[in-house]
# Entry
Amino acid sequence: MQDNKIILSSGLPYIPDGNGGWKLYHLWDMGILNQNDGSIAHIWGTSFNNLFFAGERGTAVQCNNGTWQKIESGTTADINDIWGINVNGSVKVYCAVSDFLQVSEHKILTISGGTKVDSVKWGIGREVHSIWTKSGFPIYTAGDGVFENKQGHWEEQKQVSMYYSRNIRGNDLNDIFVCGDFGLFAHYNGARWTIFKNLYINGAYLSLAVKDNLVIAVGFLSNEQAVIVVGKRN
# Structure
């Protein structure tokens, strides 16, 4: 969101049209994607003029100043999350790649220079579902365990790895949140994790967002009802 304008994706991107509505970009009809590509559900960008989209079957797309182009990710596994950093004008995007509960490759991709794809050494053999970093170091992941990479190797955060985690986001290195299955909801203050057991549910929190003193998590209950948790810091 920028200037109270919201970007949506329901497999295809909807971008504000400047008239109070949204314009749908059908990437297949535009010739950007082909029949082997999947839908896109995850969005990150520095502005409306520089957006990255990712989703099923390793599909990744960039919209740069209104020009759309497919990014060859080199994988056919799902991209479950996309997060980027902008350090001194240099943009780097991180992608968490795994097929949920299926045999597939598990990896972390990076996109720099617009479309240059590389990877961060993972090698753990565990599913990686979400990724977050403040400035590229350290890196935190969620999925089949929560991990931190601070000294070039991955260290599991076992205090919060009891359930499958779906999303990880933060304000800073001493203000990180993670959410996941069975109502897993926890906060890291830079020294230790605090688990909010009163937020456990018979369901899962699928995603969260945090900004300053506000955190919001969304998910579902076992009866398929939606659930939203809002936390405010005094």
User: Anything to note?
Assistant: The chain has two domains: 1-136, 157-234. The longest strand covers residues 79-87. The mean pLDDT is 94. Residues 159 and 193 are 7 Å apart (CA to CA).
